[in-house]
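Ticket closed. Logging final result for Glycosyl transferase.
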Amino acid sequence: MTILNIISTSYNATRPTLSVLIPFFKDDASALLRALDQETTTHPVEILIYDDGTGDAELTDAMSAVVNDCQGAARLITNSENQGRSAARNALCDNARADWVLFLDADMLPAKSEFLQSYLTLMNTADADVIFGGFQVEPKAENPDRDIHRALSEVSDCLSLAQRQAAGPQYVASSNLCVRRNVLAQQPFDGGFSGWGWEDSEWAARVSKHFKLVHADNPAIHLGLETTDTMLRRFATSGANYRRFIDAHPDLAPQLSLYKISKKLGRLPGQSLMRPVLKLCVKIRVLPMRLRLLALKLWRASHYAEALS
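Final structure:
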């Protein structure tokens, strides 16, 4: 394993108040880095971006150039091997210098110009150990193949502050997540998760039992909506991660609608035979979106039913 470090000229020995941590794999984080850098010149913030084994020299060069152009403190860490989402976040936390860290995904943008200032204020006033700011999705673009991910995000992720507060840890994700670094030292992300999904849900459920979680209205915009085929593939291959999440929190499982549906499907003989029909319904764009979403959720539950059996 080879580690490459690129550091901006403004990266000095002054200890920051907040470390912004951005893991990525084959994503270009340039737009996010430039947007954040506009605030780092006036606030005690550092930005660390971590390439989890992309292996693309052209992307590395592009990200290095952006880091070198930053006016504030910025650092690129490039790993030659892919270690997974949990390991990437833990590695970023190990290299952070501030007492608070803010996780953002590379395909996000702040929803407002005072994004970092809002977190700096909350860190001092919210009486919290963990702060989740919430999500928005980008305006509808001319790409209908990503509409189902947008629709799913709107009903599952882009929730109001009141909805998130009522649910507690259930709607916390590991992007746009501000955390005291000592919390992560005691409760790191579980490196046993591989591939996509559920490591952030498991972490939030675990941490909320020991530390104070607060929801805030400081959203980031999710730009990287996935195609229909990518959504289908991720849901079909993340069953093992879901099983790991459920095994870690059996007390939470009975409260989750996905768990209850998956268990019911698991009791139906030959339930997997309905998957071709569900997949077809998800992909037919002329169907009402609510029916496509229902088919997508049943597709996921069908695969999870096998993982839970």
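The chain has 13 helices and eleven strands. No further action required.
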